[in-house]
Amino acid sequence: MGTILRTVLIAALIFVLVRVLQHFLGRYLTSYTSKEGNGEEPTLLKCAKCGTWTPKEAVVRRGEQVFCSNDCADEQT
Ligand SMILES: [Zn+2]
After folding, report:
1. pTM for this model (two decimals)
2. Concatenated DSSP letters for the chain?
3. How far, in Å, from the CA of 58 to the mean position of ligand 1?
């Protein structure tokens, strides 16, 4: 009787241990891979009108020049 209870307890303990280990290992691995993922860093581009640094994905392009917003792009032309 006692051995069954002990076996169940040990099994539960191992289960919890594995889950905790997976949790921390998963967090470690994701933080590691995100740190190592270089090359795709957000690049800032300077607005040709007001000089505001804007993320590459958010800039407004007019030919060779880049602007922080449509307002700046329209004012320039
Ligand atoms: Zn601007």
Report:
1. 0.45
2. -HHHHHHHHHHHHHHHHHHHHHHHHHHHHHHHHHHH-TT-PPPEEE-TTT--EEEGGGPEEETTEEESSHHHHHHH-
3. 12
- Cα(35) to centroid(ligand 1), Å: 31
Kindly report, residue by residue over 50-75, the tens digit of the pLDDT.
999 999 989 999 999 999 999 999 98
Which residues line ion ligand 1, judged by CB < 5 Å?
47, 49-50, 52, 68, 72
The type of residue at 29 is: L
Amino acid found at 34: S
Closest CA to 47 of 24, 25, 70: 70
